[in-house]
Amino acid sequence: MKIALASATLALATIGTANAAGCLKGAVVGGVAGHYAGHHAVVGAVGGCVVGHHLAKKHAEQQSAQRQTAHAQ
């Protein structure tokens, strides 16, 4: 449990505020899923934060590429 809490703290501390929404949304979904999958809410929240952060970053990169393509035309 202590390792999961330390991992969650480290994950949240390293994520910038610009992508915090992806982390927070993912953490909520992962925490709920982890809770119902065997009382592993903290592990689920950490995993959800990582996945949410990744998806938010990927989405931002896609939007940036679309803007660059639109400006080039």
TrEMBL record:
Name of the protein in its database record: Glycine zipper 2TM domain-containing protein
Secretion signal, residue range per the UniProt entry: 1-20
Keyword field: Signal
